């Protein structure tokens, strides 16, 4: 379960980074081909990529807590 939480954390962090970058690139007018496509496919992600980063941080904290509890059990 802890490995699944870590996987979700990495995926959300990557998606947040890509959507934040795509949002900046689309706003600046550079590379509109992939940035506008990414923002049109996931408009919620481009409107507020910080939410994905916050959720990723929460999952990272949960993963650390799970590893700590598992270490205490051993």
Describe, in plain words, how this protein is organized in 3D.
The chain is mainly α. The chain is built from 4 helices and no strands. α1 (2-28) crosses α2 and α1 runs antiparallel to α4 (49-73). The two termini are 17 Å apart. The model has no long low-confidence stretch (mean pLDDT 83).
Q: What features would you highlight for this structure?
A:
mainly alpha; 91% helix; rod-shaped; 4 helices; single chain; 74 residues
Give a short overview.
The chain is mainly alpha-helical and 74 residues long. Helices cover 91% and strands 0% of the residues.
User: What is the arithmetic mean of pLDDT?
Assistant: 83
- Taking pLDDT < 50 over at least 5 consecutive residues as the criterion, the unreliable ranges are none
Number of helices: 4
Number of domains: 1
Order of helices and strands: HHHH
Question: In whole angstroms, how far apart are the ends?
Answer: 17 Å
Radius of gyration (Å): 16 Å
Principal-axes geometry comes out as: rod-shaped
How would the blueprint of this fold be written?
Blueprint: H1 2-28, H2 32-41, H3 43-47, H4 49-73
């Amino acid at each position: 379960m802890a490995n699944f939480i870590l996987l979700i954390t990495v995926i959300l962090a990557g998606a947040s980074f890509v959507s934040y970058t795509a949002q900046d690139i689309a706003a600046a007018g550079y590379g509109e081909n992939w940035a506008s496509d990414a923002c049109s496919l996931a408009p919620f992600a481009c409107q507020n990529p910080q939410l994905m980063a916050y959720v990723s941080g929460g999952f990272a904290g949960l993963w650390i807590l799970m590893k700590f509890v598992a270490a205490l059990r051993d």
